Amino acid sequence: MHDDRTLVEARLKRVLTERIRPAVYPESVPLEVGVWHAPGEPVPVAEGLAAPREPIAVGTPWGPPWGTSWFTVSGTVPMEWTGKIVEAVLDLGFNPDKTGFQCEGLVYRPDGTPVKSLNPRQQWVRIAGPAEGGEEVRLHIEAASNPVILDYHPFLPTQLGDKETAGTEPLYRLARMDLAVFDKTVWDLVMDLEVLGELMQELPVEGARRWEILRAIERALDAVDLQNVNGTAAAARAELTGVLAAPAVPSAHRISAVGHAHIDSAWLWPLRETVRKVARTASNMTTLLEEDPDFVFAMSQAQQWAWLKEHRPEVWAKVVKAVATGRFVPAGGMWVESDTNMPGSEAMARQFVHGKRFFIDEFGVDNEEVWLPDTFGFAAGLPQIIKAAGSKRLLTQKISWSQTNTFPHHTFLWEGIDGTRIFTHFPPIDTYNASLRGGELAHAARNFKDKGVARHSLAPTGHGDGGGGTTREMVARAARVRDLEGSPTVTWETPAEFFDKAEAEYPNPPVWVGELYLELHRATLTSQAKTKQGNRRSEALLREAELWAATAAVRAGAGYPYEALDRLWKTVLLHQFHDILPGSSIAWVHREARRTYELVTEELNGIIGTAQRALAGEPSGGTLVFNGAPHARHGVPAGGAAPESPAAAVRAAPRPEGGFVLDDGLLKVEIDGRGLVVSAYDLRAGRETVAPGRAACLPQLHPDFPNKWDAWDVDEFYRNTVTDLTAADDVRLDGVTVVVERSFGVSSMVQRLTLAEGRLEIDTEVDWHETEKFLKLAFPLDVRADRYASESQYGHAFRPTHTNTSWEAAKFEACNHRFVHLEEPGWGVAMVTDSTYGHDVTRDVDEHGTTTTLRVSLLRAPRFPDPETDQGAHRFRHALVPGAEIGDAVREGHFINQPERRVPGSAPVEPLVTVDDDAVVVTAVKLADDGSGDVVVRFHESRGGRVRATLRPGFPVAEVVTTDLLERPTAEPERPGDGIAVALRPFELVTLRMKRA
Ligand SMILES: [Zn+2]
User: Fold this and answer.
1) How far is CA 226 from CA 92, 216, 219, 232, in A?
2) DSSP 720
3) Which one of 132, 663, 816, 929 is most buried, counting C-beta atoms within 10 A?
4) Cα(399) to centroid of ligand 1, in Å?
């Protein structure tokens, strides 16, 4: 037979595009349209519905950036449409090539009931089917004219990302406002032809199945009368029933489709717009669930559910009803889909506490699945937290974005720093916005790396971020590929149903140990420095506020600020969302975040001050030092207060060759005439810290213009060009502090270097006005280390200092929390920081041997999506700690983040709990969230070893019980004797709940 394959394929494409798809709406009449342009920020729904309308014609421009317009459409169903399916087709001026990220609408009935959303790929509203002629139609649309930020030429700087700079020119043009007849048979024919045509493209040309489909499509096209598509569609469909009925082969890959809309909690729009995006998508999905009995939709991020409950009760009511059917599923168990690299121990834990608690309280749903499709890498501390929260499974897709290495598994056990293993799945479909097209399904089956031992994968299906979620077309495709020869099978399922099957079929999956490093978006550890500082500071203040408020409650009978702490935690957790804390949102988001962190700081300082005053009693002339850190400091116990004691003296003197020498008896530091640290001599160990012939505390400036994703990415070639900022405008002594002033480019820097208890404290102020530059602070260290430690949640993770393989080479920028530590046997160095996260570590070998250079990342200046990223004044605090063992790194890391506070008073305050071994770090002391007055203490082994210790409550305890992170008992309560014996494995995390006697 002659090969006419390409001819038939081209025919299918043209006939579908030019004749069959246009016949879905064979008849239409225009609707009358009125509009009210809300003058400022969005108004409540009732106000928008009631506002007076003025007429507006199709074709009229509307919508300044970030504006809201309330449209009302009205008309009458023509008498001759009786019995037909009628829909409103409402095109606000969409660009259908983009699935969201532009104008959007939510449609309401006249009584204010939400109906569904309007998006580029979902422009219809069902009016009636079958219709009655003469029926009056009236709908309201709350339309948001959100600007397109990520345009066709992406990553160009734009002023549209903040209402204050975006201008007022209308962005959209009203395109179509019609009432139309919907021909369901033609629409089904479109679906049949799309599914078969796409499947055919994926099948081997040598196989019979491909040709059977081709011939059936040809017969169907023959049956279509191009001048009467609507009259002949049924006959065309009949030609396809045979090939659509052929069942899947037994070895077919099995895809669990989960309806989903990945809605970033803020990104290229402000937080307030996310509230509306969620309302639109949730309305859309409750309507789709009513129309299709098989469809399942999963919505993650408890915060987004809470927004609905608070701001959109009419949508919330529909969602609550849909959840009761079991097909609108609360997914995951976190407050938001947060970053997981940067959130500290307690914050990471609280993401689960508040996320899970919301779903439990509202719906009785306690998920075992963690849903993080889009987060930019996964810290090795996370598995233990997932388990401690009562979950055991993780889904993410993001690692497929890695630029260098291909991850070897799609289903595996992920092992964290403490040995906890979590059953993890990466959907091989490689997208969290699947649409179930033939190409995607075939890719998932081909790509799945666990073939032969496993058969199931998951497909998060739907348009996110304002695309409205799953479409009826996706549902129609799923129905056709449920059991179809040549295709993977597709079944709508909940995440839990998928994981049940995946776990059952794969009892011994492979294991991946350590962090899931994303080989992309590495600059998210540095961009938007103030957002990152706000997070770090807030985390430290929340710890202190809970500690002192709990202590004041138990010791002084003070009230415990349950409501404020709950609200402030949720605010901080929200800002850990994976486009806020990483610094990848528009200017508006980060401007608001800076303000929010200021308010959080103010309120938490208020709570701390009130509690400390209650504890300090009446001022009597002295000064009490409160130590909120988990280790004793200057004679003040951890979590207690004591009168101030004098600090050790530091001597400062001029250095004969220029510069100054600082000496505190433990450390002797030489700062040269350039203001650089040329020696840091550990007097106890008799050992130099700085690499021979090098200088530390050296600012280095790189050009930084990545190929894509400016705020997200730093590309490896940035290292090829570097300027050492060695020129100083002034190096002077101020008391026992060396002050170094530099200017470079259009920026300037002032550093203050001083000693305290054997550490070199570095206070860096930068007035930053560079464009597309990366500022680092380099510390070449005379240490030979094959690996180094950086703090993660409840412990630390190691990374190699070499680049033997592409896996190590790709980690050229990595994350630390409070410390980075590197050592040789017997001697090490720590770098601790109060606010930075990004760093790199490299090794050099010269005639002196191997040295290791640690560089902390201070500032970047990308221009997309915020064209003014990081411009202005910044302040960072770091300390270099020569001679530090890992336990010293842990302790100093807490100290720099948890400064002492001085309060008038003289009576010491005993800690609520003490532990007799510094390896045990208490991360939280608080009252139980249930208001019972129980004291909750969370602690972990911090050095990677084993420890036996005794924890002593400083108050009468009736009984003590271990709990999960949600403070739910996991064992039988016991009566404590003289202290509570604890035996911890490396990095083991424990939560105790103590009932007060
Ligand atoms: Zn995202």
Assistant:
1) 30, 18, 14, 9
2) G
3) 816
4) 13
Q: At what angle do helices 271-291 and 302-311 cross, to 10 degrees?
A: 90
**Residue 26 backbone phi and psi in degrees, to 5:** -75, -25
Tokens 């595996």 correspond to 412
Yes or no: say if 334 and 370 are a contact pair by the CB < 8 Å rule. Answer: yes
Say what the pLDDT of residue 100 is. Answer: 83
Burial class (CB in 10 A: 0-12, 13-18, 19+), 152: exposed
Whether the Cβ atoms of residue 87 and residue 126 lie closer than 8 Å to each other: yes
CA distance linking residue 170 with residue 667, whole number of Å: 64
| H or E, element range at 800 | strand 795-800
As a residue count, the chain comes to 997
pLDDT value of residue 99: 85
d(CA 918, CA 930): 30
Measured CA distances, 583 to 227, 451, 528, 536, 541 (Å): 55, 38, 5, 14, 21
Contact residues for 902 (Cβ-Cβ < 8 A; gap 6+) = 623, 624, 625, 626, 644
- Residues with CB under 5 Å of ion ligand 1 are 264, 374
Q: How far is the CA of 125 from the centre of ligand 1 (A)?
A: 28
pLDDT attached to residue 977: 84
* Active site annotation includes 374: yes
State how far Cα 654 lies from the chain centre: 49
Residue 927's contacts (CB-CB under 8 Å, 6 or more residues apart) are 546, 549, 550, 553, 560, 562, 933, 934, 935, 936
- Per the CB < 8 A criterion, the answer to whether 214 and 1 are in contact is no
Which listed residue (188, 294, 374, 430) is catalytic?
Answer: 374
CA 325 to ligand 1 center in whole angstroms: 28
CB count within 10 Å of CB 17 equals 10
> What is the Å distance from ligand 1's center to 263 Cα?
7
45, 112 contact by CB (below 8 A) = yes
CA distances from 472 to 67, 103, 322 (A): 29, 20, 17
- Whole-model pTM? 0.98
What residues pair up with 773 in beta bridges, in sequence order? 703
Q: Name the residue with tokens 């005379």.
A: 782
Burial-class residue 861 by CB neighbours within 10 Å (0-12, 13-18, 19+). buried
Query: Which residues, 6+ apart, have CB-to-CB distance to 589 below 8 Å?
Result: 266, 267, 270, 271, 579, 580
- Residue ranges in the chain whose pLDDT is less than 50: none
CB 203 within 8 A of CB 210: yes
CA–CA dist 757, 678 (Å, integer): 20
β pairing state of 254-259 and 456-461? parallel
Q: How far is ligand 1, taken at its centre, from the CA of residue 32, in Å?
A: 38
Q: What span, in angstroms and rounded, lies between the C-alpha atoms of 53 and 71? A: 8
Distance (Å) from CA 711 to ligand 1 centroid: 14
Q: Ligand 1 mean position to 270 CA, how many Å?
A: 14
Q: Is 49 helix (H, G, I), strand (E, B) or coil?
A: helix
Cα 809 to the center of its chain, rounded Å: 25
